[in-house]
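Bumping my old thread because nobody answered last time. Still need a sequence for this structure:
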């Protein structure tokens, strides 16, 4: 009798997308940017900066210029996630020595366990500045990296970690950190987080650093992976065949063909101190936010994006075990950076729909 051979199951990565909560007014933004300021303020005011510039970006009538202080909007977004096959959102979490801003959408989600939205957090640990309206040099809130603050930080997150919708790896709550290279004593802070989670009856967080700086300290401080951040590799981008510097209509920066960027990253040798979770951008154009010294990807395309996503799924599948396999999309709703999966007036639901199609194609390809 021939011995049976067990064939290992194919790894199927989960798709996550970054989620910006700045779509409702808060007192701090009212003070610094003007009454009623939200992400939509710059999006709606944007105008084309050159011939053929894909601005302004207008949300589809099905979602409109929503406010994220309403649980019904989160329900609508959860429905859109299901349509696109997006497994979970990575909420940007803003914490400055105990001071929080833009925390309401995540709190609404926690208070409404019937909203079917998987989620986790990314600590956006940069100092809060006027970058939201082009004044990046003016700091509003600075960071505090004391051990006591590390305790308060993780204690605040414990109720979210307990939520059944919170994204986990083998029971460990996933926590992204935006810029680990800025955190002094990172190892001690991670030990503090782990100890507090253990005391609360939780497994230590599954920590992922973002490739926005040197990740060496993260690799030696208990982090498990690093997430690729496309558009941060300027040396490679400057060598693309259609890289163009522009200085038109009060805007200075660079324009790159989206097709060239897709070709770069689908043939890219990923480097890191830790295993690299592949990432991609739906599009990229932060000119509504920054105005000058900006980088714009020209010619966004659902077909090219689908090709990029399939490639990222294949990479993640080949490098990670099932529990740890993710692909990270930038972003769900970064409207002022032109990086969003939500439907708009130009492409409707195309980018959302091809997100699901790419996963279906990947699944069929590996059968």
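Sorry it took so long. Here it is:
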């Amino acid at each position: 009798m021939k011995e049976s051979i067990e064939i290992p199951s194919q790894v199927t990565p989960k798709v996550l997308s970054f989620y910006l909560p700045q779509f409702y007014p808060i007192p701090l933004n009212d003070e610094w940017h003007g009454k009623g300021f939200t992400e939509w303020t710059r999006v709606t005011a944007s105008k084309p900066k050159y011939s053929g510039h894909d601005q302004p970006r207008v949300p589809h009538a099905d979602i409109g210029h929503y406010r994220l202080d309403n649980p019904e909007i989160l329900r609508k977004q959860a429905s859109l996630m299901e349509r696109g096959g997006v497994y979970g959102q990575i909420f940007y979490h803003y914490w400055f020595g105990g001071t929080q801003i833009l925390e309401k959408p995540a709190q609404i989600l926690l208070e409404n366990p019937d909203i079917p939205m998987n989620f986790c957090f990314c600590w956006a640990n940069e100092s809060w500045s006027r970058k939201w309206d082009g004044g990046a040099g003016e700091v509003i809130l600075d960071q505090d990296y004391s051990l006591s603050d590390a305790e308060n930080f993780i204690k605040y997150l414990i109720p979210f970690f307990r939520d059944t919708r919170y994204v986990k790896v083998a029971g460990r709550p996933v926590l992204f950190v935006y810029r680990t290279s800025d955190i002094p004593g990172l190892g001690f802070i991670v030990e503090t987080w782990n100890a507090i989670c253990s005391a609360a009856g939780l497994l230590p967080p599954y920590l992922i650093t973002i490739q926005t700086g040197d990740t060496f300290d993260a690799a030696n401080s208990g982090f498990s992976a690093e997430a690729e951040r496309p558009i941060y590799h300027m040396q490679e981008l400057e060598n693309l065949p259609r890289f163009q510097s522009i200085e038109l209509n009060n805007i200075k920066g660079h324009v790159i063909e989206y097709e060239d960027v897709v070709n770069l990253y689908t043939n890219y040798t990923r480097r890191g101190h830790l295993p690299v979770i592949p990432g991609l951008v739906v599009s990229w154009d932060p000119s509504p936010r920054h105005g000058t010294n900006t980088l714009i990807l020209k010619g966004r395309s659902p077909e090219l994006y689908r090709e990029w996503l399939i490639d990222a799924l294949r990479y993640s599948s080949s490098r990670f075990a099932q529990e740890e396999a993710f692909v990270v999309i930038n972003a769900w709703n970064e409207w002022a950076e032109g990086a969003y999966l939500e439907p708009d007036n130009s492409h409707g639901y195309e980018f959302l729909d091809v997100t699901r199609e790419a996963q279906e194609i990947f699944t069929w390809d590996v059968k």
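The longest helix spans residues 302-319. Let me know if any region looks off to you.
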